[in-house]
From TrEMBL:
Top-rank taxon, per record: Bacteria
Region called Disordered, residue ranges: 1-28
Swiss-Prot/TrEMBL keywords: Methyltransferase, Transferase
Protein name per Swiss-Prot or TrEMBL: Class I SAM-dependent methyltransferase
Polar residues bias locations: 7-16
Methyltransferase type domain residues: 73-168
């Protein structure tokens, strides 16, 4: 079923998309603090020092673990930069992005070509999609802003297909000094790639597991920003890895 066309500030519909019709929101969301950043977000220096390097790493791992997804969701899509890159990596996939910021979504809809990506205003804790909708779910530098990480991860697990892949990256608390990987170097994207060498902060790892996801790849990415380490998690539905 094709998505319905709605005002561009909240949703942009891809005429060729085959995503199921989303559920209507259960309540009206208050204004989002990120609305004020929309006009300058894409020109921020952080785009080049943090956001885009992380986007590149996420797409690299996404393609490695899920090379041919039919449907992709970006949770916390902002102005849509990651989805625009994903459209080039996955030219045949249906793409959707959700974000709590109306202004960010409005900017995303303006930048994207008509009928290319579907955007909706929503929070991760209440994703407006049916179960098992997406083969690939991405989220970059958004997890720390979620109201309830465990609930958000549970929702992500719910909308991911049985063989789907979830890739999440964010700047989380650094691991204890004694756990720092020996092969970890200050050159992005070089980093150790073994789960036992780089523990994700305990709360996040627990939330991922409780949500029904099984991490099968963890990586620390040292960026050009001083003292900034990004944790990247690739996970699958637990039923798919048993």
């Amino acid at each position: 079923m094709a998505l319905p066309r709605t005002p561009s500030h909240q949703e942009q519909t891809a005429s060729a998309a085959q995503l199921p019709r989303p559920a209507p929101p259960s309540h009206v969301e208050p204004p989002c603090p990120f609305d004020a950043w929309a006009s300058t977000y894409d020109s921020s220096l952080l785009q080049y020092l943090l956001y885009r390097p992380v986007h590149q790493a996420v797409l690299q791992h996404a393609h490695q673990h899920q090379p041919n997804p039919a449907r992709i969701l970006d949770v916390g899509c902002g102005t849509g930069h990651l989805l625009r890159s994903a459209a080039q990596t996955y030219p045949h996939a249906d793409l959707a992005g959700i974000d709590p910021s109306t202004e960010m979504l409005g900017r995303a809809a303006q930048v994207m070509p008509a009928a290319a990506i579907w955007f909706a205003r929503a929070r991760v804790e209440a994703l407006p999609f049916r179960d098992a909708t997406f083969d690939l779910v991405l989220s970059t530098l958004a997890l720390r802003h979620w109201h309830d990480a465990r609930k958000g991860l549970t929702e992500i697990s719910r909308v991911t297909t049985r063989t789907g892949v979830v890739v999440i990256a964010d700047v989380l608390q650094p691991p204890p000094r004694q756990h720092k990987p020996r092969r970890w170097t200050p050159q992005w994207p070089r980093s150790a790639r073994h789960r036992d060498q780089m523990p994700v902060p305990a709360g996040v790892h627990h939330a991922v597991t409780v949500a029904g996801l099984e991490p099968d790849h963890l990586e620390l990415i040292h960026l050009t920003m001083p003292m900034t380490t990004t944790t990247l998690i690739v996970a699958r539905r637990r039923s798919a890895v048993r």
